[in-house]
Write a structure and sequence with these properties.
Distance between the termini: 45 Å
Largest sheet: 4 strands, antiparallel
Number of strands: 4
Oligomer: single chain
Strand content: 15-25%
Order of helices and strands: HEEEEHHH
Bound molecules: zinc ion
Strand order of the largest sheet: 1-2-3-4
Number of domains: 1
Helix content: 25-40%
Shape: elongated
Radius of gyration: 16 Å
């Protein structure tokens, strides 16, 4: 699954709950709650573009989608290693 940086950055801040019958996810934390089923979402962004919205990406993160995690590595730099006193 491909992910654009802006939507993926927003996706990190959303909450994902599995719905009771296991047939999708409810994604909250944005302007409202949305239902993601399979790789489709009921939001306007997905409806207009037909490509992964922040809700679909939030579910992909929750599921550990390797492509989305790879994109996340590009978005988040590695922390700098802290110098410890023994390095001096
Ligand atoms: Zn959506």
């Amino acid at each position: 699954m491909t992910a654009d940086f802006e939507r993926l950055a927003r996706a990190i801040h959303l909450d994902v709950e599995t719905i009771a019958n296991g047939d999708g996810w409810i994604v909250t934390g944005g302007s409202g709650s949305h239902l993601v089923s399979g790789s489709a979402c009921d939001c306007i962004d997905f409806g207009v573009r037909g490509t992964p919205c922040k809700h679909v990406l939030a579910v992909a993160l929750r599921r550990g989608d390797p492509d989305v995690l790879e994109t996340l590595r590009l978005l988040v730099p590695l922390p700098r290693r802290r110098r410890s006193p023994s390095d001096a």
